[in-house]
Amino acid sequence: MAMQIIQKKPESLTEKEFTYCPGCTHGIAHRLVAEVLDELGVREKTITVGPVGCSVFAYQFFNTDATVAAHGRAPAVATGIKRARPDLCVFTYQGDGDLAAIGTAEIIHAANRGEKITTIFINNAIYGMTGGQMAPTTLLGMKTTTTPYGRNANNDGYPIHVSEMVKETKGVAFLARVKINTPQDVQKARKAIKKAFLAQLKGLGFGMVEVLSTCPTNWGLDPASALKWLDEHMVPEYPLGVFVDKVGEEQ
Amino acid sequence: MAERVLVKGTEAIGEAAVRAGCRLFFGYPITPQNELPEYMSKRMPEVNGSFLQTESEVATINMVYGAACTGRRVMTSTSSPGFSLMQEGVSYMAGAQLPAVLVNVVRGGPGLGDIQPAQSDYWQATKGGGHGDYKLIVLAPSTLQEAVDLVSLAFDLADKYRNPVLILADGVIGQIMEPVTFPEFKDPNTLPKHDDWALQGAIGREKHVVTSFDIDPVVLEKMNLELVEKFKKIESTEKRWEEYKLDDADVVITAFGTIGRISKSVVTRARQEGIKVGLFRPITLWPFPYKRLEEIVKGKKLVLDVELNMGQMLEDVKLAVKDNAPVAFYKRMGGMVPTPEEILDVLKMELGR
Ligand SMILES: Cc1ncc(C[n+]2csc(CCOP(=O)(O)OP(=O)(O)O)c2C)c(N)n1
Ligand code: SF4
Fold first, then answer.
1. How far apart are the CA of B17 and the centre of ligand 1, in A?
2. Residue A11 in domain
3. Domain membership flag for residue A2
4. How far is A146 from chain B (nearest CA, A)?
5. Which among A78, A85, A11 is positioned nearest to A44, based on CA atoms?
6. Pick from B115, B132, B114, B135: which is nearest to B123 by CA?
7. Which helix (H) or strand (E) holds B90?
8. Which are the contacts of A7, defined by CB distance < 8 A and separation ≥ 6?
9. Whether the Cβ atoms of residue B112 and residue B175 lie closer than 8 Å to each other
10. Which of A77, A137, B199, B241 is most buried as measured by Cβ atoms within 10 A of its Cβ?
11. Is A30 in the pocket of ligand 2 (CB under 6 A)?
């Protein structure tokens, strides 16, 4: 009987094994980005700009030319690359400490300039790499290693809504918040990521997808409970949806 | 023959960069260097280049990092507080071995200081202003013609060694007008493309990675040692300095940048009074020309180091001079610049005249 390959590793991923914890959805997000790069046929003209965070190894995982930006500065690095080589496809992959705390200025201004780059923003409500400290996206009452009594608005402020802030900038051509904890959601996320890349490839402007993601290790949950916790706690705070879509219907 | 034109310092630096094939400029406004980004904002569109006014110096240096990743010539300029903000990015660039030309038009500090000429960023420039083991090649012009020439050299050195090169200027260099002769235009297409490492899209080849990062200390140590070897090579081949009337001198003035220029007048005036003075002016502040200075000062009556800071290059001068001659120091700070007469008086006092 002839064998047929129905699922294989995207060409846009290398052989390098992921370093993520079991049940961490960083890996799913990586795979979706790689599938989109394959589908759009842009792997050979894509530059990956990795962050500092658990996904600091993104430069090894994506089978594209790649660099690692300083913590929070990926949108600036991507801007520099794109200004030098407008013909390339440039994307940043950033966590919520990287993008929503130390890198707030860079992301807002890249979006506002309508920089023709794509940003994949992983919101897991925590600092993964440094050991589970509070992120600006941490939910109220949520315990982290630096909010041992739970995040308290009076002292720590409120969960930050980056997509809602980016939405207000005029340079955005595609913007959505998605989750990837069920197969149906993964399909929707892939569509959104594709459009976020099309936004730059068509020269329309800045594209970003905020991906609600799990961190079972630092949430103190097993992988299955983490997927559930995301629906129960993160989605109410961070409503899903497409906020900006200048790309239009996919062909 | 190329004609001489009268230009302002900041514009001379900008035009020299354009002629060196630089088509990418990122910058954030800060006095006293605003005319340089202003000039580039006008000039870059004329040569199909890209100018971007950024949201901060932090963003600026990371854009420079990104542009440099593609192997293209890129420049930024700033002044002291702005260069402080850039230090993390500069360290990343040195670690990732990225070429770029950075300009710091130094002003009075610390803190907000003032907007007058100073040389108080010497330590930051030459001893590693950011974290980790690295060096910048640091060039200090004392005239506009030299600034023009050093900008061309800076791009070539940056490309040759894959290392950021810093032009350490001061407000005087930035603001004066002088006639200069510009070099011919270099066609960006004829410049090094860095096909062996640059990020250009992995078309039909293995992927390229540009990074200062490796989680494995065994590998990182190798990367560090590779940098050390590079820095040694730069030290052995790239030292530059000027010697002025040193042959018969009893006294050696050491000074860089604007003070180097002023010290030439001191030499002339001193000689009119029968005091044999010469000038040793380092042009590369790193690598510092220790050996040549040591040779020169042997048997001299006095070495007078003059700077617009609390005595920063003085440490390197003393390292070079050792016990071979007494070293005196004269400083102005906070944006004050001494006159030649003032320096001559100090010199006479030190000589007991
Ligand atoms: C300038 C600087 N400050 C702090 C750090 C330490 N640091 C590394 S990763 C990180 C936070 C990462 O969290 P996040 O962006 O949410 O990504 P995650 O690890 O959760 O995927 C921090 C603070 C650093 N590397 N550089
Ligand atoms: S610490 Fe959290 S975010 Fe990081 S890899 Fe593990 S589960 Fe994923």
1. 36
2. no
3. no
4. 25
5. A11
6. B135
7. helix B87-95
8. none
9. no
10. A77
11. no
**In total, how many domains does chain B have?**
2
| CATH label of the domain that carries residue A94 | 3.40.50.970
Residue ending a domain, among B237, B260, B292, is B237
Tell me the C-alpha distance between B73 and B64, whole Å. 9
Check B63 against A85: CB less than 8 A apart: no
Which residues are A172's β-sheet partners?
A206
Contact present, B241 and B292 (Cβ < 8 Å): yes
The residue assigned the tokens 């260069």 is: B83
At A100-148, the pLDDT tens digits run: 999 999 999 999 999 999 999 999 999 999 999 999 999 999 999 999 9
- The reply to whether A9 falls in a domain is no
Q: How far, in Å, from the CA of A128 to the mean position of ligand 2?
A: 5
Among residues 78-117 of chain A, which lie with CB inside 8 Å of chain B? Answer: 78-85, 88, 105-106, 109
A230 touches chain B (CB under 8 A): no
Walk along chain B (353 residues) and give the pLDDT tens digit of each residue: 578 999 999 999 999 999 999 999 999 999 999 999 999 999 999 999 999 999 999 999 999 999 999 999 999 999 999 999 999 999 999 999 999 999 999 999 999 999 999 999 999 999 989 999 999 999 999 999 999 999 999 999 999 999 999 999 998 998 899 999 999 999 999 999 999 999 999 999 999 999 999 999 999 999 999 999 999 999 999 999 999 999 999 999 999 999 999 999 999 999 999 999 999 999 999 999 999 999 999 999 999 999 999 999 999 999 999 999 999 999 999 999 999 999 999 999 999 98
Q: How many domains does chain A have?
A: 1
Closest CA to ligand 1's atom 6:
A130
B115 and B16: one domain? Answer: yes
Examine the domain organization and report whether B231 and B286 are in the same domain: no
Domain assignment of residue A8, yes or no: no
CA distance B188 to chain A (A): 12
Is there a cis peptide before residue A75, judged by omega within 30 degrees of 0? no
**Using the beta-carbon criterion (under 8 Å), do B66 and A45 form an inter-chain contact?**
no
Asked whether the ipTM of the predicted complex exceeds the cut of 0.95, the reply is yes
Q: How far is B101 from chain A (nearest CA, A)?
A: 14
Mutate to test the interface with B, among A17, A52, A85, A89 (most CBs of B within 10 A): A85
Domain that holds residue A136: 26-245
- Closest residue CA from atom 1 of ligand 2: A128
Which residue range(s) make up the domain with B280?
242-350
